[in-house]
Structure formats: structure tokens, C-alpha cells
Amino acid sequence: MPRFAANLTMLYNEHNFLDRFAAAAQDGFCAVEFLFPYEQAAKDLALRLQDNGLQQVLFNAPPGDWAAGERGLACLPGREAAFRDSMERALDYAHTLQCPRIHVMAGLAPAGADASALRATYLANLAWAANAAAAAGREVLIEPINQRDMPGYFLNRQDAAHAIVQELNAPNLKVQFDLYHCQVVEGDVATKIRHYLPTGRVGHMQMASVPERHEPDGGELNYSYLFAVLDEVSQACGWEGWLGCEYRPRLGAVAGATSQGLGWMRG
């Protein structure tokens, strides 16, 4: 069975954020991820990790002004200074949380923007980020995200993400392979697991049911089968990454909603 990490932004949302660490540990999780830690002091998060015997395996670099609709800065010409500042802040948090990897969001493609200019900016920013992260012993991840959930997002396909990683050829720049987003955009998920995991370019994986983005026990993806595929391929190629549970509990934010929905993991 894959190693599962609880996404504390989406799970246990009946609790205050800092109380979600204990809830995840009580349900048997050994690792956690979340979107953005920046509303909390890094030292407070580190204490929750330590007190609950948890490992932080992933979080996102600051995405710009999220409330105003920004979804990352990496592809945006003219925002290079803000991008570098955001990466430096993420690296500070990663150091305190002992987190090995940071997801860098690409951003939304501005209407009418030249695609080649966006890609050139994206690659230049990623090269800088990978170099800065390497000096700190961290990995940088890029994630294809579907445009149904995030209209206009610059990076959408697995092949495009892997082409960028190959082109930049930085050992610590890898792909965040989200099975939910892959199914929405491309499908053929099991074949893509078999193809991409052995390349060494996948740094982290995530999952949710499709199309509802609930627990991985329903919808159009057969996760029992996919878990078996992941076990088979991981054992063959030596992949030892985490599979993040980035889904919305079917029962919502009521008390016990996440815990009651973990039958798929306990089984």
C-alpha cells in the first residue's frame, strides 16, 4: 500500500488548523501536507509536527495575492522579484518544518499574453528556484492542474511538466503528479503511472475521487486498482514518495467527517 499523507488544508476542517495535526496522527497518518502555512508561525507548526510524531512532506510557495485571484507567480513576466521573495519565504518555512519539497505554482496565463514569453519566464524562474532550493537541500515541484477547477492555469498536462523538468535538467526539480487532475485533463492514469514513475522525475503524488473530489472510494477512478499499480511500479523502480490525500470529505465539515471517511485506508 502507498504511504499516505493527510492534506490538512482539506481534511479535518471541523478543527482549527493547528488542531488538525493531532487529529491526523490519531487516525494513523505519519505525514502531512497543506497548501499554505504562512498564516501560522513556522515554529508553531514545527511544534505540532514534533508533538504528534508527524513529518511535513509538502507545502506550496506563496502564490501571490490569493484573495485577488492570483494562483502563482512563476509564469508572469514582470513579477520576477515578487517570485523570488516568495521562494525565499518558502525556503525559510521549509527549513523550520524540515520539509523536503516545495510546490511552486505556475500562475494563471493573462488573457492575450504571448505563450512563448510566459514559458520563458516560467523556465527562468524555475531555474532560479531550483538553484536556491538546492543550496538549502530542498526539491522544487511543479504540478499540472486542470482548468475546470482552476481556469487559465498555465500548466495542465503531465507531458508538458515532464518536458520542462527534462529541459531544465536540475536534479531537484520534479513533477507533482496529482491523479485527480490527470484524470480530469487526460485520463489513462494507470499507464501514466507506469510511464512516469520510473523516470525519477516524480517527486510527490496526490489523489481524490473524480469528479466530486471526495474520498478515493467512488467515482470514475478505481483506486484499489491504482494502489496496486503504484505498489507494483514503486517496488520495481524504487520510488519511495508520498501520496497526498488532497480531497474534500464527503460529509463536509461536521465533527468526525474525515475520520468516518477513512474506510478506504483502513481496509
Automatic annotation (TrEMBL):
Protein name: Hydroxypyruvate isomerase
Active site residues according to the UniProt entry: 143, 246
Gene3D superfamilies assigned: Divalent-metal-dependent TIM barrel enzymes
UniProt keyword terms in alphabetical order: Isomerase, Pyruvate
Domain Xylose isomerase-like TIM barrel stretches: 21-266
Record flagged with keyword Isomerase: yes
Family indicated by similarity: Belongs to the hyi family.
GO MF entry, a single one: hydroxypyruvate isomerase activity
Pfam families: AP_endonuc_2
Record carries keyword Isomerase: yes
UniProt record, GO biological process: glyoxylate metabolic process
